[in-house]
What does this fold into?
Amino acid sequence: MKQIPALIRVFSYLSLLTVGGGMAAFPELKVLTVEVHHWLTFPQLIHLYSLGQLAPGPNMMMIVAIGDRAAGVAGAIVVLIAFFGPTAILAFSVGRLWNRLANCPWRDSIEKGFAPVAIGLLLAGCLSIAEGIITGATTAVIALLVFVILLRAKINPALLVLAGAVVGCFAFYHPH
It folds into this structure.
């Protein structure tokens, strides 16, 4: 229970970094959950993030597992509220304001300024997760193949996650 205040601070803060999606907050999520608070290891965080990609709903629902690891069921509930609450309130408030400012000439300029920021945050998240995943030629090839497949074909990413699990069984399983 002593972790509850830290969970609230960390996940409320991370909530506000999710411009463009959960991946935008991944670098800071890694720093805070792995390096600062030691609630998980980096491989555990990557594992949870991968499972979040596979599960239905928002991929960042995986944060509930972090709260559970840190403080049990109470931690899971607190993290869920702390992560999604501030963003929901902010989105609602900004949406209402944005509608009121529909005829302002600078509105389009703001939208054009936000887009590259969102892309930059997403790329930083991708590079951060790549540090822990791409550990050699095999993992680099898998990542590149998935990237190319997603650029060229309309395929459910969950199928690629499942395919990655199958490939992993063959490529990385080393019985004792």
User: Anything to note?
Assistant: The chain has a mean pLDDT of 91.
